[in-house]
Automatic annotation (TrEMBL):
Source organism (scientific name): Bradyrhizobium diazoefficiens SEMIA 5080
Ranges where the DUF6894 domain occurs: 5-70
Pfam families the record matches: DUF6894
Designated name of the protein: DUF6894 domain-containing protein
InterPro entries: DUF6894 (IPR054189)
């Protein structure tokens, strides 16, 4: 298991994941990123999530991959 951090950002700022989550591999990290995205998208409010990105990094702070929220939402028509 490795500790991964899931930071979310848009053009106005960044939400820092200070605790992280222990994951077994990159597939589990991607699944966790998708779970976080779903949770944020389903939170009631007026936020337009299409310009948000989730940045996944390891203990050393090095970004491993990022995943735009549009991967889940799709692009506007």
């Amino acid at each position: 298991m490795v500790q991964m951090y899931f930071h979310c950002s848009n053009t106005e700022g960044t939400l820092i994941d200070r605790y992280g989550t222990a994951v077994a591999n990159l597939t589990e990290a991607r699944d966790r990123a998708a779970q976080i995205m779903r949770s944020m998208i389903l939170t009631p409010g007026a936020e337009d999530w299409r310009d948000w990105v989730i940045h996944v990094s390891g203990d050393d702070g090095e970004e491993i991959f990022d995943l735009p929220f549009t991967a889940m939402l799709g692009k506007p028509h």
